[in-house]
Design brief:
417 residues, mainly alpha, 4 strands
Length: 417
Amino acid sequence: MTSPKSTSNDGDTKMAPADSNESYMLYQKTYLASIERNQVSISRFILLSLYITHFLIPSGSKYTHKFMNLQYQHDVNLTIKHPSSIYDIGWDDSYIIIHGIILLTFLRSFLMINVFEPFASKFCHIYSRKAKIRFAEQSWQFTYYGYSFLFGLYLFIKSPYYFNLDNVYIGWPHYQLKSEFKLYYLMATSFWLQQIFVLNIEQKRKDHFQMFSHHIITCCLIIGSYYYYFTRIGHLILMIMDSVDTIFSFAKLLKYAGFNFLCDVMFFIFLTSWIVLRHGVYNYLLYHVISRHKILMQESQCIEGVISLRRCWTENIFNVFFGLLGGLQIITCVWMYLIIKVAYKVITGTGAEDVRSDDEDEEEEEEEEVPLVKEDIVVSTDEDDEEDVKEKDNEDNEETTPIEKESSSDGTLDEKY
């Protein structure tokens, strides 16, 4: 990362612009900032109330049962194997989704504050407030995406469409869902809805519109695919997204921790996986469903006046899904352009840098650190005065904070900040 403080050509110190800092101060006065600061306490109160009511108050479980248990279990007589673990879908699944949103909000905030930020300070020597927050955010995303991908991969290996894409559509609608698959899909829905919540209560960043559009399209695809029993193709797309996001988050962690060479290596692994999975495999899945759905799902097509299936498909239904999948790919192409810009910087020796948010981070870092560093800048013309300044600096350094100790004599900060 570049130094937060910049200098002009004649060596004079250039003060950082105050626009971003003013925006931050205005944001801190809003009710959204208050919610953001109290995510742990609010979500903890709701969860404790739910769990106490459910487990400790006998008469209360009838109100909390749907928040704690999967709904629409199939009747024993309708299934052959493991009847107790087979479920259908319905509107009452929204209770589990709400529970998941609150639980994920608590876990994210609690781990960021009590685990990831202290880890950043103690083991990665990251002391800047903004850098610690960014490190904690990426740590949470690495944790969630990694777990989601591994669990999704486990379900994929056990699925009937493991390396047989035709089975994604044969026999549709697939209304018999195993409990672990249903929970996986509902938790993915909770996560992406919770992402929209977080995106709108935190201070807006430069890529807010792109991220908001991505999250809205993703939620529409997940909820729509769940309602129409397109969960198998949804499962494959979730795995594609989770795998790439896991690598990206790990690369960002290496960057914030100061492992620049490893970050560059991981960036090229991320670049390769992005191209292969999000453009290659993703578009192949899109091509496969466009070219094969009429043949493989012919028996499930809607027939006017005939209602014999839980769901049936029409061309309009598929066109809506194709439009959403295409929109997601357009956003992915826009991000691909930004990734190419980062790749150019790596090749030219600048190093991997996330152009979506790092410039913004550095401006905020300037406003946070420059006043602190400016106190160390002393102009002197006499040699005796210079000796006095050195002695004074040595005395001051014994009482400075860890961030100040990293300041060099010309007022710049170490590159890792």
